[in-house]
Amino acid sequence: MKDWPLFYAPDVKEQLALPEAEAQHALRVLRVAPGDELLATDGRGALYELRVTATDRRHCLVELTHEERWSPYWRGRLSLALAPTKSMERIEWTLEKAVELGVDEIILLRVKHSERKHTNIARLERIIESAMKQSHKAWLPELRVDVPFAELLEEHPAAVKLIAHCRSELQPARRLVSDCWQAGADTLLAIGPEGDFTEEELQRAFERGYQPITLGESRLRTETAGLVALQWLHTLDQMDRSAQSTTTRQE
Q1: Residue 245: its pLDDT value, please?
Q2: Which of 31, 132, 203, 214 has a CA-to-CA distance to 45 between 20 and 30 Å?
Q3: Can you tell me the distance from the alpha carbon of 13 to that of 114, in angstroms, rounded to the nearest whole number?
């Protein structure tokens, strides 16, 4: 991907123009002019190289010079489900950093100890979009909010389902992420609220195939735990791919 400004423009291929909000940013902040080159994505993996053809106070017209597919640098679909904190700023920061690390789906849960019962999705979607552009990705993560924990247990299709909690006395015993990880498998990470999941919630999760994990000796805040676990998955995937590449070269 070229080091040009990246815009979210789902219909740019058909309309040959940036959406109005993106055009305003391009015109007022970046001060683009005809002849300047930009990148745009539809958020579904298509990456477009564009050249500005005309501008006015509200519009930025472009021509398409090149199109390619962008592939995530991780294997398998990664889903992060967590119970949001009471502070909106902490929720926003968590989503921003999760997108920067790389994630396909973010689910904000409603559990017994939830600090926030309802969440405004519109602002969070804008933050996710901004983080996608800032980190130069061409895949816009799906966001689901106010999802009951019982609903998550019943319907999520991930092959590997991990749930982090702090109750060391419960069985089955918690394991490290590296002990549960499967190369290339669709993986769901479930992170509880500040007061942790209840014992009943955990037992229901275990019955549905969720594997309990620990993130170490420190007791982490919800947002820290989610990001630590997500990065752990990325690191395992990168190490596995590097090992495979080394083996192939030796052969």
Answers
A1: 81
A2: 31
A3: 42
User: Would residue 76 be called left, alpha or beta, if left means φ above 0 and alpha means ψ between -120 and 50 degrees?
Assistant: left
Q: For tokens 């229901």, name the residue.
A: 204
| SS3 at position 66 | strand
Query: What's the token pair of residue 7?
Result: 């815009």
145 alpha-carbon distance from chain centroid: 14
Could you tell me if 82 and 109 are in contact, meaning their C-beta atoms sit under 8 angstroms apart? yes
> What CA–CA distances, in Å, run from 87 to 44, 91, 119, 156, 180?
30, 7, 11, 27, 31
Measured CA to CA, the distance from residue 228 to residue 32 in angstroms comes to: 38
Task: Please name which of 245, 221, 246 lies closest in space to residue 83, comparing C-alpha atoms.
Answer: 221
Higher pLDDT, 95 or 1: 95
Residues 6+ positions from 244 with CB-CB distance below 8 Å: none
Give the H or E element holding residue 151.
Answer: helix 149-155
Phi, psi (degrees; rounded to nearest 5) at 98? -60, -40
CB 140 within 8 A of CB 132: yes
| Average pLDDT rounded to a whole number, residues 19-29 | 96
User: What is d(CA 78, CA 72) in angstroms, rounded to the nearest whole number?
Assistant: 11
Give Rg (Cα) of the chain. Answer: 21
Beta bridge partners of 40: 7, 48
